[in-house]
Amino acid sequence: MGLGSAPLSTAPPIYKLHENHLRPITRASPAALRFVQKSIANSWNEKRQKLAVGCSKVSVDKSIIDEACELVNGTELTIEDEGEVIPAYLFTAVKNNNGTGILLLSDIFGFHDSATTDFAYRVACNGYNVLVPDLFRGDSWRKDRPQALLEEWITKQKPEHVARAVFASARWIRDELSAAGISNKLGIIGFCFGGGRVVDILAQDQDAYFGSGVSFYGTRIDSSVASKIKVPLLLITGDEDALCPITKLEEITKSHDSAKVVVFNGRGHGFIHRPTAEEDADAEEAFNIMRNWLHDGLLVQK
C-alpha cells in the first residue's frame, strides 16, 4: 500500500516500504507553463544570474536524471523584503510543470550547498517550482570552521530572522504563481536545521501559505508547537540519528493528528540528501515517500 493512501496514525510506526508506488506526474496547465516562461524571460531584479539549465548541463548526480526530468531551469535571484535582501535559487520544471511551489529549507551548510541544490533540482524534475532561500543572511556554516564554534554559530541564527526569510520567500513565490492565475497551496521541505524549522514555520503559518510539509531528520524541534499545525506533516528520520530523537517525533504525533512518522532502521543523520553510497536504496525510498506525500497533499487535494 502506498504511503499516501495509508491511514494516518497517532502512534509513529517504525517501518520501511519495500515497493515504490509512484504517483503519475501531473502535467502543466497553460497558466503554469506561462509562469515558467515568465520566470525565464522577465528580469525579477538586476542581481539575478542564470545558472546552468537543462538536465544534460547541470552538474548534478546522474541518478536524478530520469524520464520525469525533461528540462529544469535554474535561476539565482534576490527577494526584497522591507529593505532586506534574501538570496535564493529557483528551480522550475518546464515541460511537466504542475504549477505548484515548494520551499526547500537547507541544512546548516546553506542554500548554495551542492547537496541541497541537487535535491531541489530533483524535486523540480517531478513537476514543481522549488525555491531555496538563504536562511542565514550569507553566513551559512562552513566545513572549514572549528567544530567547537558550531553551537555559538547556531545561537546566532535567530528564529525570527529565519521565519522572516521563509515567509518573505513564500509570499514571493505565491505572488508569482497568483500572477499567472494559479492559487495552489505551497509545500515546504526541510533537512536537519531546515527540517526543524519546517515544524516552527507550519505552526506560525497564519496566512495559510502551505498545504503540506515534509521534515527530514529535523534538529532542535520544538514539539510543543505541533498542536498549532493545520496541515499534513511527514517526518522522516533514522533510528540511529541522535540529532533527531524519535521521542520528539512521537510527541508531535500525539498533538497533531495529521502527522506521519517514517523511521529507517540502521540509518543515521543526513542519509537522504547526503547519501554515502552512489546507490542508496533507503535514500531513494525516502524520496519516493516524500514525492507521494506531496502529490497527494498538494495536487490531489487542491
Task: Tell me about this structure.
- The protein is an alpha/beta fold.
- It has a single domain (3-300), classed as Rossmann fold.
- The protein has seven helices and nine strands, in the order H-E-E-E-E-H-E-H-H-E-H-E-E-H-E-H.
- The chain has helices at residues 30-41, 114-125, 150-155, 159-179, 192-204, 246-255, 281-300; strands at 49-50, 72-81, 84-93, 101-105, 129-133, 186-191, 210-216, 233-238, 259-264.
- Strands 1-2-3-5-4-6-7-8-9 form a nine-stranded mixed beta sheet, sandwiched between helices.
- It is globular.
- It starts with 29 loop residues before the first helix and ends with a helix.
- Residues 1-65 have low confidence and may be disordered.
- Belongs to the dienelactone hydrolase family.
- It is found in: Cytoplasm, Cytosol.
- Residues 86-295 form the Dienelactone hydrolase domain.
- Keywords: Cytoplasm, Hydrolase.
Topology (SSEs and partners):
Elements: H1 30-41, E1 49-50, E2 72-81, E3 84-93, E4 101-105, H2 114-125, E5 129-133, H3 150-155, H4 159-179, E6 186-191, H5 192-204, E7 210-216, E8 233-238, H6 246-255, E9 259-264, H7 281-300
Parallel strand pairs: 4-5, 4-6, 6-7, 7-8, 8-9
Antiparallel strand pairs: 1-2, 2-3, 3-5
Protein name: Carboxymethylenebutenolidase homolog
Keywords: Cytoplasm, Hydrolase
GO molecular function, one term: hydrolase activity
